[in-house]
Design goal:
- The complex is a heterodimer of chains A (219) and B (136).
- Chain A is of the alpha+beta class.
- Chain A is 35% helix and 23% strand.
- Chain A is built from eight helices and eleven strands.
- In chain A, the strands form three sheets. A six-stranded antiparallel sheet of chain A has the order 1-2-3-10-5-8, covered by helices on one side.
- In chain A, helix 1 crosses helix 3 and helix 2 packs across helix 3.
- The longest helix of chain A is centred in the first third of the chain and has 20 residues.
- The relative contact order of chain A is 0.15.
- In chain B, helix 1 packs across helix 2 and helix 3 packs antiparallel against helix 6.
- With 136 residues, chain B is mainly α.
- Chain B is globular.
- Chain B is 60% helix and 0% strand.
- The chains are: A alpha+beta (219), B mainly alpha (136).
- At the A-B interface, helix 1, helix 2, helix 3, helix 4 and helix 6 of A face helix 1, helix 2, helix 3, helix 4 and helix 6 of B.
Chain lengths: 219, 136
């Protein structure tokens, strides 16, 4: 059971549908791993149903009414078959939807880009230039380079675990970073730590090694 | 655009009617989620990404019935009572969030109140709606 959650207003914005797609991908994937947040999402959707139900009906014009009726038997194939990525067992176990279908690649096939000998990253498709959506793999037992944030950074553990000054983050746990925080999490021994991270406005490494890395990578 | 969305939602409801599961949600909640998703797809030209109740990676509820912790079934009269009983400032925030496609942050700057105030108004409204539904 996840102990660290995304901010509640983000979960509510996701349920209402006003959260940016990149952040919704993150929140929805957490919701798959977190029954507590699922209850909150359901409550918000129920409230939406209540509000919808309470609106006075508005008549539609004849043309629209006929358009709807004449299309009732037109079957839209895309409507029924949402694209779902067929993953191998290891990927199926570690990566929840909707992230799994968004990745559309098995874990062992990810073309990781090495950032340091202990850290690899893989940028996921994302059309929204305000965010970077990225998988991170931190080698078991190693410390992630100190880094600073341009904007809000959300990190969720999918496999393994890491610890920072706020506690231990296991599967489904969400760590929040903002511009005022410089943190350097340490991955637990035993298993590489696999994370999904969504960063608003980019992220830069600090410290001597980090500064060098920044020259080569827009991190 | 509004006509296109109305048509889209009504046809989606019609085509997916067979997949509606009364154990998971009331009809109005189900219709609401369809309208929300189509709004995101059609108007905002983004893609609705959501969790999947059949996902094998899903972490299940600790107890079988925890999933049932939700608002009781609605009924027209009780519902209107619950909604009209909300303080106007809470109802206002709810309408902006649910019908005007506005995030907490946008609502806060529009109403010129702190983000925390918007958060707590939405939270209070959800709590009140839940409480009045449970009473019934």
């Amino acid at each position: 059971m996840a102990r660290f959650h995304p901010p509640e207003d983000m979960v509510i914005d996701h349920a209402v549908g006003t959260l940016a797609e990149a952040q919704s991908l993150f929140v929805a994937s957490h919701v798959s791993l977190c029954p507590d947040c699922r209850v909150l999402v359901r409550e918000v959707e129920e409230a939406g149903g209540l509000l919808l139900h309470a609106i006075d009906p508005v008549p539609v014009d004849q043309r629209l009414r006929e358009a709807v009726l004449s299309n009732l038997h037109h079957v839209d194939e895309n409507d029924w078959h949402e694209a779902r990525f067929i993953a191998d067992t290891a990927t199926l176990r570690a990566v929840p939807e909707p992230l799994r279908s968004h990745m559309a690649v098995n874990l062992h096939e990810i073309p990781w880009q090495r950032v340091t000998s202990k850290l690899a990253r893989y940028d996921l498709p994302n059309r929204d230039p305000r965010f970077v959506v990225r998988m991170l793999k931190i080698a078991a037992g190693s410390r992630m380079p100190k880094h600073e944030h341009g904007g809000m950074e959300l990190t969720m553990v999918l496999a393994g675990a890491f610890t920072d000054d706020r506690g231990r983050y296991g599967r489904g746990d969400v760590a929040l970073g903002d511009p005022s925080i410089r943190h350097s999490p340490i991955a637990e021994d035993g298993e590489d730590c696999l994370c999904l991270t969504v960063v608003e406005g980019g992220l830069s490494l600090s410290g001597p090694i980090g500064k060098v890395v920044n020259l080569f990578y827009k991190f | 655009m509004a006509d296109e969305l109305v048509q889209d939602v009504m046809l989606t409801v019609w085509r997916r009617a067979a997949s509606y599961d009364a154990r998971l949600a009331s009809v109005s909640t189900w219709v609401y989620t369809i309208a929300r998703n189509r709004r995101i797809d059609v108007i905002r030209r983004q893609r609705r990404v959501d969790w999947d109740p059949t996902d094998p990676a899903l972490v299940p509820e600790p107890e079988p019935n925890a999933a049932e912790i939700r608002l009781a079934r609605e009924n027209g009269k009780q519902l209107n009572v619950a909604l009209t009983a909300l303080p106007p400032e809470q109802l206002d925030v709810m309408r902006r969030a649910f019908f005007e496609d506005k995030s907490h942050t946008t609502i806060a700057s529009e109403m010129n109140v702190p983000l925390g105030t918007v958060k707590s108004r939405i939270r209070l409204a959800l709590t009140r709606l839940r409480a009045s539904m449970e009473q019934n």
